[in-house]
Write a structure and sequence with these properties.
CATH topology of the domain at 107-273: Fumarase C, Chain A, domain 2
Distance between the termini: 45 Å
Number of strands: 2
Radius of gyration: 25 Å
Order of helices and strands: HHHHHHHEEHHHH
CATH class of the domain at 107-273: Mainly Alpha
Shape: elongated
CATH superfamily of the domain at 107-273: Fumarase/aspartase (Central domain)
Strand content: under 5%
Length: 281
């Protein structure tokens, strides 16, 4: 058996190794995930300090300096010992910034970093896809204009029907892709931050930290939401954000996938099979 150092001795998903762009591969990487956890812990500590908790500037400085400095070997050791990925990374982060170790994850629950990171990754993924889709629409628009007068045979039920043009066919694709772009942008803009909600969404741990001061806990939620780049957070949630968010995002992506399949297979492959066009189209 090949050694662990050989990258070809382990399974790699073609979705990442072959088809994904570098920026999308990074967006779903462990480095992005765990550095975002550290950003969330840093934002939480900053907000807690601003609202009066005993957190020093030196502690925050250590946290900020070590956001990307992740010791994955130590994290693996900690996870084997603690059997909990979040706690493993709490202690790994604490080892990198010992002054801040006592206040990392203060009042938070696993879903604070896990779910909020998932929402950040979803938002950033949409921000990667949207300009690429807009660029595709722009290029297809130019293609449609160039070939608006080029006649081709239209079909109904796979039977020859009436003449149309190549440019008009491209406009059908553009129309679908514009609908997809709208849906993706809407899904992206509708994303809400889980926020600072505590273990079961009651914010009990934060109310305890702030001696029952509801106003400060609400401010804490708003401050961290703003630091994470979201306009809104969920008003209510349980341990996790509602998974309806995931189905909504998936629906917009599935719709885009259906449109792309129609263009690449149902249209272009059909044209090629009937010798109306070739692969260079």
């Amino acid at each position: 058996m090949s050694g662990d150092a050989d990258p070809h001795s382990k399974y790699r998903s073609p979705l990442s190794a072959r088809y994904a762009s570098p920026e999308m591969s990074y967006n779903f990487s462990e480095q992005k995930k765990f550095s975002t956890w550290r950003k969330l812990w840093t934002w939480l500590a900053k907000a807690e300090k601003s609202l009066g908790l005993d957190i020093t500037s030196e502690q925050l400085e250590q946290m900020e300096l070590n956001v990307e400095n992740i010791d994955y070997d130590l994290a693996a050791v900690e996870e084997a010992r603690r059997r909990h990925d979040v706690m493993a990374h709490v202690h790994t982060f604490g080892a990198a910034c010992p002054l801040a170790a006592p206040i990392i994850h203060l009042g938070a629950t696993s879903a604070y970093v896990g779910d909020n990171t998932d929402l950040i990754v979803l938002r950033d993924a949409f921000d990667i896809i949207s300009p690429k889709l807009a660029r595709c629409i722009d290029r297809l628009s130019k293609f449609a204009g160039e070939h608006k007068g080029l006649p081709c045979l239209g079909f109904t039920h796979l039977q020859p029907a009436q003449l149309t043009t190549v440019g008009k066919r491209a406009c059908l694709w553009i129309q679908d892709l514009l609908m997809d772009l709208r849906n993706i942008q809407r899904a992206r803009d509708d994303l809400r931050f889980r926020g600072v909600k505590g273990t079961t969404g009651t914010q009990a741990s934060f109310l305890e930290l702030f001696d029952g001061n509801h106003e400060k806990v609400d401010q804490l939620d708003s401050l961290v939401t703003e630091m994470a780049g979201f306009k809104n957070c969920f008003i209510v949630c349980g341990q996790t954000y509602t998974r309806k968010v995931d189905t909504d995002c998936l629906a917009s992506l599935a719709s885009l996938g259906a449109s792309v399949h129609k263009v690449s297979f149902s249209s272009l492959r059909y044209w090629t099979g009937h010798l109306e066009s070739n692969e260079n189209l």
